[in-house]
Write a structure and sequence with these properties.
243 residues, alpha+beta, Rossmann fold, Methionyl-tRNA Fmet Formyltransferase, Chain A, domain 2, 5-stranded antiparallel sheet, 6 helices
């Protein structure tokens, strides 16, 4: 449920700020005399004045095992990098990107059955519960936290979705499931036609063919040769044929 709709349901004040750091937003926030500011899936960076005014009173929930995978598209990257778990972290907000001291953190296993869509659903649910748990801590200050050091994930851009068939079978499998969402999808040009790939399966049997060559097409999908095996594409969008 959208935040605005939820606020209306419970008769709570709600406003959308174009710039969290401008004078209008700062005045609006100050009018509530808040004890705590909570951020989740927020696409703006808190800057000088608001950070100074509410030092130690702004927290954020980030869907990664901080200090690793800061920044954007982190759930895509954990799959691409073949991680075996992903994390959810609640941390204080500072002037960096997801660099503030960590308050709470939980980790969850990733299986080969997972893809971007399943991780996103799990992360949304986990973030909500962990944020609630963190907010309760502020009822009995001081709130304990610990510092972090790690790396930032870059935001994925146009062209990043194109398949590189020279990758290993496992890397291709991870790449495809990392982009499994209706508005995403890994992309490949097959016989000059753009195809969107959403789900694949690593095959154990051997097939003869060049890297990136389609060696079989059926109602269940199509099989592509890789440098170290074969991959069966079982969910895709587009027309595929041999040759």
């Amino acid at each position: 449920m959208k935040l605005q709709k939820l606020a209306r349901k419970f008769d709570l004040p709600c406003f959308v700020c174009e710039d969290i750091n401008d004078e209008k937003s700062l005045e609006k926030i100050a009018s509530f005399e808040p004890d705590l500011l909570v951020s989740m899936s927020f696409d703006q960076i808190f800057k000088g004045r608001i950070l100074k005014s509410y030092e130690g009173k702004i927290i954020n929930c980030h869907a990664s095992k901080l200090p690793f995978y800061r920044g954007r598209n982190n759930l895509n990257w954990v799959l691409i990098n073949d991680e075996k778990e992903f994390g959810v972290s609640v941390h204080f907000v500072d002037s960096g990107v997801d660099t503030g001291d960590i308050i709470l953190q939980k980790c969850y296993a990733i299986s080969d059955e997972d893809d971007y869509s399943t991780l996103l659903k799990r992360a949304y649910k986990a973030c909500a519960f962990l944020l609630y748990e963190a907010v309760l801590l502020f009822l009995n200050p001081p709130v304990k936290s610990y510092s972090q050091a790690g790396f930032v994930c870059k935001r994925r851009g146009s062209g990043d979705e194109l398949i590189d068939w020279t990758l290993s079978t496992r890397e291709l499998f991870n790449f495809i499931r990392a982009l499994n969402a209706p508005n995403l999808g890994a992309s490949a040009f097959i016989n000059g036609v753009l195809i969107k790939l959403y789900k694949s399966e690593i095959l154990k049997q051997e097939f003869k063919g060049a890297i990136g060559e389609i060696v079989s097409v059926s109602d269940e999908g199509f099989i592509v040769c890789t440098k170290d095996g074969a991959l069966k594409i079982i969910k895709y969008k587009g027309e595929v044929a041999l040759g």
